[in-house]
Amino acid sequence: MDMDMATDMATETATAARKRKETKAKLQSNSKFLLLASLSSIVFGSSAAEVEFSPQVNAEAVYTDNALLDNDNKQGGEIGIISAGVLSSVTGNDGEATFNYLARQTYFSYDSSQNQLFHDLDFQFDKGLGNSGFRLDGDARIDVQPANIAENALTDLISGDLIQSSTYGLGLRYGSNPGKLVEVSGGIETRLTSFEDDRGNNDSQRLDLRLANGSAEKKYFWLIDGEANRRESTNSGSDTYDAQYRLEFGLQQINGFSPFLKYNGESATEDRSSSQRSAEFESWGPGLRYYYDQNTYLEMSYNFSLDRSVNDDYIGAAINLEPTARTRLFFEYSKRFFGDSYAFSFRHNIRRLTTEISYDEKPTSYDRRYTLDDVPIEELRLAKTLRWQTDLNLRRGSANLILLDTETSSFIGGSGSNDHFQSLGLGYLYPLSRKLDASFDVSWDRRVYKRTAQTTNDRYNRWGVSLSQRFAHEVVVRYRYNLNFRSSDYKADYTENRISIDINKAF
């Protein structure tokens, strides 16, 4: 009896705590939504604005044959999800705003303690401030993400173990008339990011400035371009800082040739309570561009290193190809404080096919989507990211391919960790009739976490087929089957089958 009473009291205490937490979250969410709505009203006013407003309700029923995601202990279960929200936009008065909100309540037949209310919010606005050249912009996002990517990086509302995350940003930008002698542009932005469990909370600021010759200048060209980023851990007060700046001055084209002088500088600092680490590099030198036409050029430069302990003198190169308005290719080689550096971008658009590819390298810090919790937020890391997206619009149907490869590692001391994330997704949509669509999607994900003591390798594979049918009064019914796999060096492997049906009604 004493043990039963203790268990009941513990259960009641946990339930009461959970209810207090949910009530607090609801109050915080409601106050945030009211604040955002008020801000939109103040910025855009009520006159001369076009407003679109579409409420949505949705009900979904799901069956899974492996609710615990454990092949050695397979248990089936049913999950219900009730959702309600709104899609809205405001356009006018030299500005635009979108406000999309969705509340989702989950119900688990096999474990009612997992029942939870989730909020999804996507709010964005951009507003010109008269004829001053200034524009005010902001955004707010609330969504869900895995509580611990080491346990399950692709968890969702069905498998559980999620947390709410929120990001709020506000910025001010300025752009001058490019037809004058000097063109000025730049901006400042502040951003606040927080998580339900407070791990990884941070605030950040960004400043960028660009001064260049305007189109009224016919003989010379010049450029002063720079940006600075700061990110601070809300919990520890430690921060990271990085800045890039470059200067160019030269003659405009003479028979296609354009000689110039350039200067590049970069610095990065991580400031912890116990120590401070920093790295920097500067170089300058002459360069020459040859323009094949107005937009296509080849650039070569010789760069003198101002700190040979970081890098020796080097030859830099860049090429920009724009044979048509539909095609652009850019490649650049240089040296930065971490050594050799490459940048690449490609865009090609022909009729129904669009392809975009990019590769960049930049300093960053803790990103909860890809980094384990053992990496401190104030540790500077080098991120190398490759993105590829291809969209194909057919006469009937559409297909897309998305590839992402990002690797982050500490580069000025730090933990010595390396996190590598790879993802490939394919999707195809085919209309069977005017009101019936079939779709197929598949994705492969691989996550490698290298630490001094060990390396873990997680692999995920998801397959899905759907059938969507549209009825009168904006009712859409979707039937879906999913097959999910995971193999891991760290956690148990699993295979999961899901069948679901959801009904959506728009007003």
Automatic annotation (TrEMBL):
Top-rank taxon, per record: Bacteria
Region described as Disordered: 1-23
Record's compositionally biased regions (Low complexity): 1-16
InterPro entries found in the cross-reference section: CHP03016_PEP-CTERM
Name of the protein this chain belongs to: TIGR03016 family PEP-CTERM system-associated outer membrane protein
